[in-house]
Specification:
Largest sheet of chain B: 7 strands, mixed
Number of helices of chain C: 12
Mean pLDDT of chain C: 90
Mean pLDDT of chain B: 93
Oligomer: heterotrimer
Structural class of chain C: alpha+beta
Strand order of the largest sheet of chain C: 1-2-3-4
CATH superfamily of the largest domain in chain B: Bacterial phosphonate metabolism protein PhnH
Radius of gyration of chain C: 27 Å
Strand order of the largest sheet of chain B: 1-9-8-5-4-2-3
Low-confidence stretches of chain C: 1-5
CATH topology of the largest domain in chain B: Rossmann fold
Helix content of chain C: 25-40%
Distance between the termini of chain C: 49 Å
CATH class of the largest domain in chain B: Alpha Beta
CATH architecture of the largest domain in chain B: 3-Layer(aba) Sandwich
Distance between the termini of chain B: 41 Å
Largest interface: B-C, 66 and 52 residues
Chains: A alpha/beta (189), B alpha/beta (290), C alpha+beta (365)
């Protein structure tokens, strides 16, 4: 095991996780809002924000799918040591991590069932940058409209049609974090 | 405080609750099942709200707890003390100063802001429960968006009483999809459910968490010819003179003399401090002198 | 002038102090020790462990002392404590055939290998108050016999050899955990049994009794009831094998139930199962009867609409901590809701009166 994987967890888990969750909740409740998070130093290529999310939300009961370059020994070992979550095939994942290209196709992830729409995957998308510009967002959590630099539009429109089923997304760039729940109606700028 | 973890719950329990909260926000009005834990206070005393608050609080928060709108009711005091002790958070009675407000049966009168979170304690989260006792059946009804039974019940009220005979826990439809129980708030509070703050609902015994994100459409169920009406006692507050607040009726003597006072104690105190005086009130300046 | 009721905090503190004093009772009477409760009120301790889902006689005794003997309050204390404990791992299933039995009886056979062992039972005592106990005195020592070595086979195994009783399929599937996942219906048998074993003794007894009186009658015989100690083993990954981590006392009841057969099953005996912490005879028999009643679907029996057949009804209402909390919470203030009801009733009455007056007027005209 690479000794570095033992590092990079929360220094003060109860407090670091509490702050991180508030940021995660705020961005999920207010699509388009971008928050800064801190406290995790995961191995490359995982961003600080994605690492913070996993430390805050995942445990041995939450299967994670790693996509593309994120599926590497360092990341797997870091997850095993700090979180204990099983790394699984995409179909079985509650959380998915990767770049927009790597997490495709979205159709393989759980979107919930009619009686339990909450049993759907949360997709954590790694981005180069994140800005409050680009696609126009409307829906719950948004007073009139918001904007977010989404990697594309059509996929999120298809996802919204599935409501109340569907995927929920987090977007991470460095330590910046944003989200897009299935309820958001997305239009191209 | 070293006997227990920050905010009492262990980290894995908080993670589980946090996941439920996020899914709740993503599916407004849908009741997310969660593995509620036994808390050191009884079920029915707000264990759901307490678990949601515990998973939400940071040490930087300022917390307010109200029961029936009041900060000084015994159970509100008890829950506030619990978080002072286990999370070491600052507490306040002033709505405007609070970042997290846990409530039982009321929404504060003061308009809540974007930087605030309102946590409701919920006894029976299922709005269809009193029409259909089986969880298996009500879950099916939600999945099929089959809410006819609820409309029939409300319409029967109208046929029998000439009005909808539900005064509190008045059902709402969230974002045009899920019928939701807003917890036993008086229907006077229903219009406030569309707000800037995040609203989280916790039902401990029934193991459900649900949420309403800011600015989400929340419509009280009604009929075209019998529109929803947010009613309250037709009276101003006898202490502060407020015309727009929900009132408690207080019996004053054996003869049954009554007076009406704001149920939101902070709102009432704030108005009185600002010099408003009701029919039986005294200005706070006079009170201080006495 | 009206002054809002203040001082909730002081009232609570004072109430707690008074409660502590009441718990202690007359200070001229010696204080109970936790060890005394553990040793001399052991059936109370057993119930608290069973419904509290935590095997720790000392903590259960402490809870009984703190709760002033209120069993549900004591169970609540244990549950609230239990939920904060970290979970290190899972034991292997206990092997009750290897139980060191203090008591082992069968109602279906006069004798069986292993023998009938009455053990410390109230069964044949005459329920006459023993005034000698009011005076303090030592009891004479009971006779002792050598324990028979070796495992004690289950009575139902003998029926099984003849194919007369339904076989239970073995499974390596990890059972669900009621305390870690929200209950989802339909619940499998493992979850149902978990719910019943920690369910309120009175509730489970009442449900079982209702089946005997005809609400989904399933003609139960106590095939076997055994009480004794079993070893608890746990795999230690670092060691690579299982070790004994201790011993617990259990009561196990297997009922043999008549079954005429159904579309899917031939006529044969069927089983109900009860397993409870400690010496908890009434509870384990009750549990077995209710377990059997809840199995109607898998055995292809008719749903008679009896309460004990209704899984949702039984599982949602058996937990006394949930029940007592919700029941007692109605003493919390509800004046906001009540106020809204008051306004509504006044409005409806006003409208009804006005309508009445109109009718009367019209009649007069």
């Amino acid at each position: 095991m690479n000794a570095d994987v033992l590092k990079g967890g929360f220094a003060d888990a109860p407090v670091d996780a509490a702050h991180a969750f508030r940021a995660a909740m705020n961005v999920m409740a207010r699509p388009g809002v971008i928050e800064e998070v801190a406290g995790a130093v995961p191995p490359a290529p995982m961003s600080v924000a994605a690492g913070v999310l996993l430390l805050t939300l995942c445990d041995p009961e939450t299967p994670i799918a790693l996509c593309g370059a994120h599926d590497c020994a360092d990341v797997r070992e870091w997850i095993a040591f700090h979180i204990g979550a099983p790394v699984v095939a995409p179909q079985k994942a509650m959380f998915v991590v990767g770049t927009w290209c790597a997490v495709q196709p979205l159709e393989v992830y759980a979107i919930g069932t009619a009686e339990y729409p909450d049993r759907s995957a949360t997709v954590i998308v790694e981005m180069d940058a994140l800005a409050a510009e680009g696609a126009v967002l409307r829906g719950p959590g948004i007073k009139t409209q918001a904007a977010l630099s989404l990697p594309e539009v059509a996929a999120f429109q298809r996802n919204a049609v599935l409501f109340p089923l569907g995927l929920d997304f987090f977007f991470c760039a460095g330590s910046r974090l944003a989200a897009l729940p299935r309820t958001t109606r997305v239009e191209a700028f | 405080m070293s006997d227990y973890n920050f905010a009492y719950l262990d980290e894995q329990t908080k993670q589980m609750i946090r996941r439920a909260i996020l899914k709740g926000l993503a599916i407004p009005g849908y009741q997310v099942p969660f593995a509620s834990r036994e808390m050191p206070m009884p079920y029915g005393w707000g264990t759901g709200g307490v678990q949601v608050s515990a998973a939400t609080l940071t040490p930087d928060d300022t917390m307010k707890v109200i029961d029936q709108g009041a900060d000084d009711t015994t159970n509100a005091v008890s829950i506030r003390k619990f978080f002072e002790k286990t999370a070491g958070v600052a507490t306040t009675e002033a709505t405007a100063e609070a970042s997290v407000i846990q409530t039982r049966h009321r929404i504060p009168e003061e308009t809540l802001r974007e930087d605030q979170i309102l946590v409701y304690q919920v006894p029976i989260p299922e709005p269809l429960r009193f029409l259909e006792p089986s969880e298996v059946e009500t879950r099916k009804m939600h999945s099929l968006e089959e809410y006819g039974l609820m409309h029939v019940k409300l319409y029967e009220d109208i046929a029998r009483h000439g009005a909808i005979a539900t005064a509190y826990a008045y059902p709402v439809k969230v974002e045009g999809r899920y019928v939701m129980d807003p917890s036993p708030i008086p229907k006077f509070d229903n219009p406030k459910l569309e707000m800037a703050a995040i609203q989280l609902f916790g039902a401990g015994r029934e193991q459900r968490i649900y949420a309403v994100p800011p600015y989400t459409q929340v419509v009280s169920l009604d009929f075209e010819d019998f529109p929803f009406e947010a009613s309250k006692a037709d009276h101003p507050c006898d202490l502060c003179g407020a015309e727009d607040s929900y009132l408690d009726e207080v019996i004053m003597d054996d003869a049954g003399t009554r007076m009406f006072v704001c149920s939101d104690t902070d709102y009432c105190a704030g108005r009185r401090a600002a010099g408003h005086v009701g029919a039986q009130g005294v200005s706070t300046q006079e009170e201080d002198a006495a | 002038m009206y002054v809002a009721v203040k001082g909730g905090e002081r009232a609570i503190d004072n109430a707690h102090a008074w409660l502590a004093e009441e718990r202690r009772g007359d200070r001229d009477v010696a204080e109970l020790s936790v060890a005394q409760i553990r040793e001399q009120l052991s059936l109370a301790v057993n119930r608290v462990m069973a419904e509290g889902s935590l095997y720790d006689p000392d903590l259960a005794a402490l809870a009984i002392k703190q709760a002033r003997g209120d069993m549900i309050e004591a169970i609540f204390l244990i549950r609230a404590y239990r939920t904060t404990l970290p979970r290190f791992g899972y034991s292997k299933p206990v092997e009750t055939a290897d139980m060191a039995c203090d008591r082992r009886i069968s109602a279906t056979f006069k004798d069986a290998p292993g023998g009938q062992v009455l053990g410390p039972t109230f069964d044949y005592t005459h329920r006459l108050l023993d005034f000698a106990l009011a005076a303090e005195g030592e009891v004479p020592e009971a006779a002792e016999a050598e324990a028979k070595p070796g495992p004690v086979p289950h009575i139902t195994e003998f029926l099984n050899k003849e194919g007369l009783i339904q076989t239970e399929d073995e499974s390596d599937e990890v059972p669900g955990d009621l305390t870690r996942e929200p209950l989802e219906l339909p619940a499998d048998r493992a979850l149902r049994l978990q719910s019943l074993t920690r369910g309120d003794e009175g509730f489970v007894l009442g449900m079982a009794y209702s089946t005997q009186r005809g609400y989904a009658r399933n003609h139960a015989f106590v095939g076997e009831l055994r009480i004794g100690r079993v070893a608890v083993e746990m795999d230690i990954p670092e060691l690579g094998f299982a070790i004994d981590i201790g011993e617990i006392e259990l009561t196990e009841c297997e009922t043999v139930n008549q079954f005429a057969g159904s579309k899917t099953e031939p006529p044969q005996f069927t089983r109900g199962y009860g397993l409870v912490f400690g010496q908890s005879e009434r509870k384990s028999i009750s549990m077995a009867l209710v377990d059997r009643a809840l199995r109607w679907k898998e055995l292809g029996e008719d749903n008679l609409g009896a309460p004990a057949q209704d899984e949702e009804f039984v599982l949602y209402h058996s937990d006394n901590i949930q029940a007592t909390g919700f029941l007692e919470h109605i003493k919390l203030p509800h004046y906001v809701d009540f106020q809204s009801e008051l306004e509504l009733i006044r409005k409806l009455r006003r409208e009804a009166m006005e309508a009445g007056e109109t009718v009367q007027q019209e009649a007069a005209e």
